[in-house]
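This is your field. Pick holes in the following sequence-structure pair:
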Amino acid sequence: MNKLALCLCMILGLFLVDKTKAQVALQTSFETTDGYVSGNLNDQNNWKVKAGNAVVSATNTVKSGSQSVNMKADNAALLVDFIPYSGIVAGLTGDIYTDIWLNPVSFATKGVAINAYDLFGNSAKRIFVIELSTDNKIKAYNGSAAVNIGVWTSKDWVRISVKADLAGEKYKVAINGVLVDTEFNLRESYTPTASGARIASIKQFHSLRFNHTSDSQVASSEFFIDQMYIGTNPIHDISFGASATSRTITLSQPDYGTITLSPATASYELGQQVTATLTLPQGYKNNGWTGDLSGTELVKSFSVTGNMTVGATTGVDLGNPPPQYVISINQPVNGQITLSPAAADNKYYKETKVTATIVYDACSQFNGWTGGLTGNELSKSITLSGNLTIGANIGEITTPAVKRVVTTVAEFKTALSAMNPGDVIEVEDGSYNLSALTITRSGCQTKPIVIRAKNQGKAILNGNTALTLESLKYLTIKGFSFQSASIGTGIKIQNCSRVRITGNIFEIKETSSCNWIYIGDTFASPLPLRSGHNLIDHNSFDGKTQSGKYIVLDGNYNQQSQHDTISYNVFKNNGPRAANEKESIRVGVSPLSKSSGFTVIEYNLFQDCDGDPEIVSIKSCDNTVRFNTFQRCLGTLCLRQGTGTIAEGNYFFGEGKTAVYTDPESGASNTIGCGGVRAYGKGHKILNNYFQGLTGSKWDAAITLTNGDVTNSSSSLSDHYLPEDITVAFNTFVNNKSNIEIGFDNNGKYPKYPINCSISNNIVVDNTAPIVKSFSTAALAGLSFASNIMYPTGLSSIGISATPDQIRNIDPKLVQPKCKDLNGACADHLAYKVLRLDQWSPAIDAAKGDFNEVSVDFERQPRTGAKDIGADEYKGNSPIFISALEPKFVGPSAIPFAYEVVYDEKPKPEEPVEKLYPMEAANLLTPDGDGVNDRWIIENIKMYPNNEVSVFDKAGRLVYSKKGYDNEWDGMLNGNLLNEGTYYYMLSTGASEKKIKGFITIIRNK
């Protein structure tokens, strides 16, 4: 017998099962004869590789045959699924057997888990979980508890065999053929629902998954698998014993009445007869048994068919109802009593179970229930038997505020657990590793709690310090240096309001994804929104290297946290660039994008924040981003989702910075640059911003309005809404690589053009490129232009055709005023780089339209009377209140903003002449039909739609005249060709009073 035949016999022997009435989901050694080819396992025979790597290969590491599967992840997630049955079809039921040979090579950070799943609807419930941990243990999960069942050795094959009794909701495990004594409960307790052809209530096997104990866990791992079997036939060489025949009956007691069983035991045998009896109070009836019983009788006998649930729906017998009683509430002054369930006029039937709950301000204390209730529990349940009056004694908190000075971790933690409203914790200089710590103590408006460093930045929170502020109010954390390492979240502000994080230095050392500050409710919580009115101010955030955000604002299941403010912070050195999920600030998230955040991001400085194409990502409605400075940041302020956000008075400086970014998936490289504002969605206003020396284009122009892939009426929560009703007004652009880009369609992926957007009262000066770039006439048609000044010089041009009412091509006279600086160091101020209007600028008082929302300019100087075009409202030497920010004006050591300009008085110059597009009229006309010089061509005449052309003969007689000339004259007069000779012309552009004059010669070649 040759070696191949011998191997096949061995495989067949190992997989020997009786296939009579058996279902087999998988039986393979990953050979070519099983339909596996060398290479990526993804999409082979129901396998999906969603994260990490899984490769079929012919290596020395095989259990039998010539191929095995190598799974590997390098500091990344691992997620490999075998899905023989989807959640809408019937899976395997009854006793399910799984047999796997696994060869572990190495695990770091986390081990690997083998998970069996039951799929239904949008749910995935784990049947069993077997884990190989980093400490060489093999564990099985008994419910949620991990139990050690064996050990593994690197590069040695280990056999893991499982019998899952889905009917009995138990499973057994054998390691290398030896049965483990413990019988395990299923990993999750659940009742499946119907989904497609998949029936309800019956547990089924649908899929097997390999991961690092969770789907998103980042770790490093390598292992091989071979010789796998999943099916309903027993594994021939392992005796798991018979499945248990004992079953349980779970009672779900009704709102009214009691269910009892006879006999009443902890478990029952299959086929055993049981009687359920429902006892009801007077005035109530059985509306129907629930769970595994049906009918409305009060006594029900049945046979045990499996693990069963028995309940009943009971209600008032309207033909003979019980009496009704009223609960009267005396509400306390500083608290609120609520009843559950709520009822009109607080009127309930007798026997109704009602829970009274008291809530009160943190500066108050609950001294106990009054009236018909006693005790001091915050929630008190009663069964109503008569009318009842209740109240609560709420008094002012009597605990005096104290100051606690701490010098050790133990003292720090003790102080945190003892905080009361008005308390101050002052932390001496030193290093403190608080580990993962949850703070739940609240202050109140008149008595906030303050946790502060004694000396700014000298109390260092390091190690794996990660703070969770849970369901609290009025707490301040001030003056610390956060230097934690290898954590997932620095400060989680969850279900909180009126929290302030101020004056801190954040320099977290990252090894994996990390959000430095999280604000929001418990994500996807159905409870009413609790998060809001939090303040993050005067902090420094420096040195992000991994995915995650400096600050992220989320919410509950349908509403983003509201009225939070992020101000006077410095964000710097976020890099290198990632494809996604590395914004410096993200406000909202796709599932919450239709909710209003009312977030304010103001007076912050962003320096070298390159980690994500979206420096600040807005994904909700009605937010404000104003008076921030973006310096050398590769990306844009992106209004990615939502409606009605205002981007006002921000400063963007590119300073020549670009970088080469290589996509990790495609390997393609491209140059990226510094951008301004990119907007999708409806109703945004981009006002009073200043863009100078930006180096980005396409996605990262100073103003980017691409196409979208859906309309704004779409229910999608993740697509790119087309730009609609977006206002771009009173901005100033100075020598950017790309100033305004319209209608990029992302290689055909975004087919929806902008609608009803306006570009008004802006100033653009440029010397290298077209000022407006439109990718299509259809996209350009979705925008209107009005009262802009665009001044191209050098190689620049306007880029589109426009009338003078839309775009005036005239020098706006932007200047760099002197600054009032006692040290004479004007050039050291970023505000000095900002170009402002000269006192004789044609932009002064020239804006058109009401724009009542534009009440100040980019320096918060008031705009009164007729407004000036551009971001600057000329006020001469009047005080300015804000400008481009420098580090000294933000962060923990910020000083008040101070900068003064000094204008030199100058005489009024001559009236500016609007720059004309260079025009050259042909001096020869040969109308002979050969296609050359058949018509009189004047270059760039189309740029002046209000032009007027007149042609005269030698005697001064008018032979041709046309308003709005468009290169159509063929030398004819009254249907006859003019005589050969030289003629004189005059041209008025309509854009100025200047006349252009010259001569044209007509030659007749026929």
Observations:
- The chain has six domains: 3-231, 246-316, 324-396, 399-599, 627-814+842-875, 924-1002.
- The radius of gyration is 38 Å.
